[in-house]
Amino acid sequence: MTIQEKQDEIIEEFELFSDWMDKYENIIQIGKELPMIEEQYKTEDHLIRGCQSRVWLHAEYKDGVINFTADSDAVITRGLISLVVKVLSGHTPKEIAGADLYFIDSIGLTSHLSPTRSNGLLSMVKQIKAYAIAFQVQEQK
Amino acid sequence: MDIEAIRKDFPILDTKVYGKRLVYLDNGATTQKPTAVLEALDHYYKTYNSNVHRGVHLLSQQATDAFEAARTKVAAFINAKHTYEVIFTKGTTDGINLIASCFGRGFLKAGDSILISAMEHHSNIVPWQMICEEKGATVKVIPMNEDGVLQMDQLPALLDDTVKLVACTYVSNSLGTVNPVREIIKQAHSKGIPVLLDGAQAVQHIPVDVQELDVDFLVFSSHKLYGPTGVGILYGKEEWLNKLPPYQGGGDMIKTVTFAKTTYNDLPFKFEAGTPDMSGAVGLAAAIDYVTAIGLDNIQKEEQALLAYALEQLTAIEGLRLVGKSPERSGVISFLYKNTHPFDVGELLDKQGIAVRTGHHCCQPVMDFLGIPGTARASFAFYNTKEEVDILVAALKKAAAMLD
Question: What residue numbers bound the domain in which B122 lies?
Fold first, then answer.
């Protein structure tokens, strides 16, 4: 599936929930499916500091695509990063660097991307893009 | 107290969030404003807005009169001996920075120390660290126990010859602890050391009389006392304010200016450089009128009853941990659910229409001491009701079920 198809699938899934609490229940559930970062990568180096919760992210570049694993000490944040990881994992650096993550807005979670929200999601998206750009440069050399 | 009538004075309390009636339990961060305050601001701008102190024209005189009347009102509210002991600031943080800077420049030297408490807000830590670093002085700390109660037995030894000032919060914004400030002031004064009280979380909950407390400096914010944002108060004893050098330079704080030498104005203007927040002062005066009409004693009684009810109800939730267990408390209740992140709890309460605060509440040393990332904090005002506590409890139970 392309990044766009994955996003559209998530949007469709979230259309089922009219109530915020149901939506959050689903986000928490999705968080449980997040490919867990290996303990060895849960270090300061892999820590993305958000103001309210901590997020660890590890990127692995293999066979032309990047796969991400992550974790957070807050379950809602874990759900949100799980969605982002699902959408972007397994794609090429170029696809990831250029991806427009419109699904976050479509499922009503734009507020989580506000810099003042500081829950780590925005920093994580930035970090993922930074990895993608770095691997892209590496590839071109 | 007729809470339903009082709630009608606060239009924002009718707001709906996510289709639910707002339950506003973030009063420790800022309180809502009664119509009387909103109307005072509106009236100020519509009828006599003008710059104070310098104008010869009628509007300027009216604005000056209103601004100075606000000062008199604040002085009466805290029972200051003299009106000129009341300085308008931008807020609590500004007031502490003013004293840290002026006291530091006037009285601190290498080897001296400032004594603060373990539960200070960052605004009562960082300004002291900054001036101490500049002067080669140090910041010392009165420790607290796991319940969030100051270890007063350690105070006599801490008040050694190096201490030049004690800066302590009256009520903790993260734990709700009411500190034994009379005892702290008594002990400090017995060694000739002045005391600054951070009253940001106190003046809206507890009647404060600066003469009875014999406190040297008191700082607080208008916006936590039902007044507008952007204005605050520094009270200082006349003898101290006269001894301190001025803070910022500018208009209003001078008597005469030549390129060779400037002479400074008398109190209170010496510490009020630039155009002050006139409308803010007028709004604060209206807030004080509003609070005084209800009676701070009545407000305190009502809030204590509500706090006791909330504590009882929250303690009954299985897995809920209270953070801060001082027997003397006011205003806020901090809590955690099992080992979940406070952010999750806050988010799930928000989506049920309840406004609480999550995080370290600008008290990172408190959280480090307790070994937690932060807390969720419900903070109460006299317009909150038992029904709202019940809504909070039901919402917490729902959140807990989702987080289990």
Answer: 38-293
